[in-house]
Specification:
GO molecular function, one term: structural constituent of ribosome
Function: One of the primary rRNA binding proteins, it binds directly to 16S rRNA central domain where it helps coordinate assembly of the platform of the 30S subunit.
Distance between the termini: 29 Å
Structural class: alpha+beta
Family: Belongs to the universal ribosomal protein uS8 family.
Radius of gyration: 23 Å
Number of domains: 2
Shape: globular
CATH topology of the largest domain: Dna Ligase, domain 1
Largest sheet: 5 strands, antiparallel
CATH class of the largest domain: Alpha Beta
Subunit structure: Part of the 30S ribosomal subunit.
Main location: plastid
Length: 180
């Protein structure tokens, strides 16, 4: 059994994105579900879907069987973009306009032969507040990740939200993780 489900989820996502897999399966908790919603809303993952519940065909005999209806896991689809590479990428060094147009036409012909690399939208995931050391901040002390390019996910009294939302509402809370 895993004690820290958030760091388990972040580690699974980090490992699968490094190996360029499309989907990740993480254990279902309400906190993991909320973090997945935020990651999808911010554009870091493609989609997510709770899975693993009992089919509707089975009949439930007593109230203990109601726990079987809860999802057991969350399937997360990771998001990637294509980064194109070509060996004729430094056109700014050319000063002769004739040579520039020749290379420009050459690149147009090579467009189908360009090499592309699959790059994850998630560069880094970091767990900040851990079970052994909780970190709480007010709305004035909220950290900015890469000048606002990344996000910090907070657990507040109003629910799980991003740092931008918490700054707008003027509330602080426990800093769960940072994503960029």
């Amino acid at each position: 059994m895993v004690n820290d489900t958030i760091s388990d989820m972040l580690t699974r996502i980090r490992n699968k994105s490094l190996v360029k897999k499309r989907t990740v399966v993480v254990p279902f908790t309400r906190l993991n579900l909320k973090i997945s919603e935020i990651l999808e809303k911010e554009g870091f993952i493609h989609s997510f879907e709770p899975q693993g519940s009992v089919s509707k065909k089975t009949e439930l005999s007593n109230e203990k069987d109601l726990n079987l209806l809860k999802p057991k896991e969350i399937k997360i689809s990771l998001k990637y973009y294509k980064k194109f590479k070509t060996k004729y990428y430094k056109l700014s060094r050319l000063k002769d306009p004739v040579a520039f147009s020749v290379f420009k036409n050459l690149i147009k012909h090579l467009r189908g032969k360009q090499i592309y690399k699959k790059v994850s939208c998630i560069t880094n995931l970091r767990r900040i507040s851990k079970p052994g050391l909780r970190i709480y901040v007010n709305h004035k002390e909220l950290p900015r990740i890469l000048g606002g390019a990344g996000i910090v996910i907070l657990s507040t009294s109003k629910g799980v939200m991003t740092d931008r939302e918490a700054r707008f509402r003027g509330i602080g809370g426990e800093v769960l993780c940072s994503v960029w």
